[in-house]
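Summary for the steering committee. One of the milestones for this cycle was to obtain a three-dimensional model of the protein with nicotinamide-adenine-dinucleotide bound, which we needed before selecting residues for the alanine scan. The sequence and ligand used are listed below.
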Amino acid sequence: MKFTDKVALVTGGASGLGEGICHQLAKEGAKVVVTDINLAGAEHVVTDILNNGGQALALQLDVTDMKNIQEVGAIVKEKYGLVDYWVNNAGISKITPFFEHTEELWDQTLNINLKGQFLCCKEAITQMLEKGKGSIVNMSSQSGKIGTSHYQAYCSSKFGVIGLTQSLSAEFAPMGIRVNSVCPGVIYTPMWDQQKVDYGKKRNLEPDMVMDYFKNKIPLRRLGTLEDIAKAVCFLLSDEADYITGQALNLNGGDSMF
Ligand SMILES: NC(=O)c1ccc[n+]([C@@H]2O[C@H](COP(=O)([O-])OP(=O)(O)OC[C@H]3O[C@@H](n4cnc5c(N)ncnc54)[C@H](O)[C@@H]3O)[C@@H](O)[C@H]2O)c1
């Protein structure tokens, strides 16, 4: 229970990796603020946490809306106190050939995946400066280090997350605030329901063959699980990672090593 009495906020907490991270934080004793644009989904995760004896609160949060972020920050401060940990996880992903990559897709992807993290860090760091300490984890991706075809907007957003992380970590380390990012490989979440169809088109594979295709090229010969990612995120948030800041940690079964 390394997070007893700690306050942790997760964006995009209603589904997939965000949901897994919320559960792991609650298991470790944190008061978890499960935020998402999808309030019903966030409430569902909170119900599960409460049923398992944890503490959690659901709040609707659109990471592209600064006013909404500040309102959520104020509610958290009032109900639980200043945040100790903030996980910028919310994101979208679309695999599509470059000439079908619309300006709208570019703007939407960059807004949610990158600008959303920039805006959320304003609130997170404001609270952490008041507290005198804090730790942030930003969700990047294996696609934040290696560009692949049909993925221009997504890769650009996730490369940007690593730049944002390094810049913030350099500025706020002297104030006791650590900022890291994680770079998962393929984890089967609802995000992949449509992506396996689009990725299949790119590689000429049936959608049902796509996950096996990935598995076979990963040295550890399995896809990552929600727990694999959640445990690494909780480690980076915790005092066990006290000397780690500005890093982009690969969580990909050895699929890439730089
Ligand atoms: N699944 C993977 O293979 C994988 C790999 C690497 C990185 N990632 C990253 O992990 C994060 C989570 O992905 P996932 O696979 O769990 O996807 P998911 O689709 O299951 O979950 C994403 C969540 O983000 C929320 N969201 C979308 N737009 C939002 C907004 N404007 N404001 C607040 N919330 C919003 C959605 O409602 C959803 O609950 C994303 O940043 C994704 O890019 C995923």
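Key point for the committee: The chain has a mean pLDDT of 98.
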